[in-house]
Specification:
By secondary structure, the chain is α/β, with parallel strands linked by helices. It is built from 6 helices and 5 strands, in the order αβαβαβαβαβα. Helix content is 34%, strand content 20%. The chain has a 5-stranded mixed β-sheet with strand order 3-1-2-4-5, with helices on one face. The longest helix is centred in the last third of the chain and has 13 residues. The structure holds iron/sulfur cluster.
Length: 137
């Protein structure tokens, strides 16, 4: 699906993962986080560009702090945390990275990992975007 999605979009945009950080985050709402926490993938850039953003250094679209990784590099880091007992993966500010998110999920599943996946967005997503996530999140 993801390769098809990338192809449909007419380019290689799904190959590059724009990542601010990948880490275990204990600060999500307790009902989501529970004791095992969440492995969060913080994407750089954001579709909203709010003037008051506390994460401006990573959310701005001009020069965010980021690393550009391949999907396999991202998945390797996530698997490290899953192997430590974390059982959820959160995608933070993911709206502009839909193809990349699906690529990560599919790659994890191909490698035998099926954690709970969390779409942690600002809420401003098109209905079509949410529909495309139906079988993933
Ligand atoms: S939606 Fe959130 S992360 Fe994005 S710019 Fe606004 S405050 Fe920052």
């Amino acid at each position: 699906m993801s390769k098809g999605l990338v192809k449909k979009r007419g380019g290689n945009c799904g190959v590059e993962q724009h990542i601010s950080s990948i880490c275990v985050h204990k600060g999500e709402e307790p009902v989501i986080s529970d004791k095992k926490s969440v492995c969060n993938i913080f994407f750089s850039h954001c579709n909203m560009q709010c003037s008051y953003c506390q994460n401006y250094e990573i959310s701005n679209n001009k020069n965010p702090i980021e690393k550009i990784l391949t999907t396999n590099q991202v998945v390797e880091k996530v698997i490290y945390h899953l192997n430590q007992g974390v059982n959820k993966v959160g995608f933070v500010s993911p709206s502009h990275m839909l193809a990349q998110v699906i690529d990560i999920i599919e790659t994890l599943k191909q490698k035998g990992y099926s954690p709970v996946f969390i779409w942690n967005s600002n809420g401003y997503d098109k209905a079509e975007t949410i529909k495309m996530l139906e079988n993933y999140i």
